[in-house]
Specification:
Keywords: Cell membrane, Membrane, Transmembrane, Transmembrane helix, Transport. It is a single chain. By secondary structure, this protein is mainly alpha-helical. The protein folds into three domains: about 15-200, Up-down Bundle (Growth Hormone, Chain: A), CATH 1.20.1250.20; about 210-265; about 275-510, MFS general substrate transporter like domains (Growth Hormone, Chain: A). The chain contains 21 helices and no strands. The chain has helices spanning about 15-35, 45-50, 55-60, 60-70, 75-85, 85-105, 110-125, 125-135, 145-170, 175-180, 180-195, 210-230, 240-260, 275-305, 310-320, 320-335, 340-355, 365-395, 400-440, 445-455, 460-495. Helix 8 (about 125-135) packs across helix 19 (about 400-440), helix 14 (about 275-305) packs antiparallel against helix 15 and helix 20 crosses helix 21 (about 460-495). The longest helix has about 40 residues, at about 400-440. It starts with 15 loop residues before the first helix and ends in a 17-residue tail after the last helix. The relative contact order is 0.13. The model is unreliable at about 1-10 and about 510-513 (pLDDT under 50).
Length: about 525
Amino acid sequence: MASAASDGPVIRPMTGAKLILAAIIIGLGNFLVVLDTTIANVSIPTIAGSLGVSPTQATWVITSYAVAEAITVPLTGWLARRFGGLRVFITSYLAFGAISILCGLSTTLEMLIAGRVLLGLAGGTIIPLSLTLLLRIFPPEKATIGTIIWAMTTTVAPIAGPILGGVISDNIGWEWIFFINVPLAFAGGLGLIWLMRDQHDPTAKAKVDGVGLGLLIVWVGALQIMLDEGRNLDWFASTEVRVLAVVAAIGFVAFLIWELTEKEPIVNLRVFRHRGFVAASLTYSAAFGAFFATIVLIPLWLQQNMGYTATWAGYATGIMGILAVISSPIIGKAAEKIDPRLIVFIGVMGLGAIAAWRTTFTPDITFGQMAWPMLLTGPFLMMFFIPVTGLCISSVEQHEQADAAGISNFMRTVAGAFAAALVQTGWNNAARENQAELVGTMTQDRATLDAMMADGTSQEVATTMLTGMVQGQSVILATLDMFSMLAICFAFAAMLIWLVPKPKGPLDMSGGH
């Protein structure tokens, strides 16, 4: 298969002010795209009211973006070979800004969903290409800094999304969650055109694998819609979910067979011949899925059961970014000297220990008591994120790095979607089961009601209060159950990293072996 490798390095390392500015711009592109995966979440009720639709219908604003992005991410390697990685990145950057205008100007739900689909298609290539470009612009001995920048933007953005979305929607208007992308994306895209105008961006002939592309769209689209709609439709009790599951399964098998036998596949699955890539990407997916489930579960619990507003729930999760930013340079330096597998192991086990810590939460927990484990999540998250992305990239050959970045990020995205859907379903089911058990064990409920009524409380109010207490206890027990499961998932993910062959010296991000 032809590749860009024969034409020399895609990007020459940079130095000085140009390096700093280019790194900031590339990192910003990744931040904007990842931010848009969560910034609309808390704005759905506002958007629904503005466009005259139900909140359930408005959730397609989230689903449409996720589906489009999930389809585009694994195509990145092929697009980079065919058109040049730098060209694809800059074009996507500028398109992201232009399409954000259309989203903000939408007057109907259909128009907004169409805009979000286009936004996801444009943004999907930015996530993996931002990593490969950051690794290219830094000299080999400083490549870890590129990984640090990418890791910070990828982890902080989904945390910042709900905070920004809530503040903007409440104080300015939901349209501005899209309009804020415009000046940043245009400035970033035009800035890269100027900064990298003398860089070599080779291309290679690559035919359009139409069958592979079609199968990819079918199975990824069916899977993502199934995950997003499943919890609203009672999962496999729904005919729609069962049909989507069958389509996704058949489409996936057909896609694998076709891509592994096609001479010029649109997704280069041959990167899975590298044991290091397989083990690192599985660790990446499993640990990120557990982490993403955590940052989905905690805001839901705080808003629905602890009385927090969307903004304060965002602050409660966003606090992890403080030590994440501070510790990143230290962890990056350590990754150059210590076995990166050990750093990943400690990081993921640390996340598991924090999940276990959260099993001690009580209904009267204060913001400060909850903030401590969230604050300490930051360093462990970076210990996991920085080396594991480096292991994914360094395990393949140079001309396969765009493919490796695309596929590993696709696996991470799907793992996050699976985890978010499963944790919400498990949480709701556990709450119902716990409530039934608590009601079944209450032998003094009549006496409790009589005592409350004797103090002057009406029967209706007393019943409501007792029901609320039972529901509150069932929810906190369900939350603790989920934290226990997540702790086990982290421990499992930590074991996977030892399947990666021990790197010979510092991680080599240049494709050498």
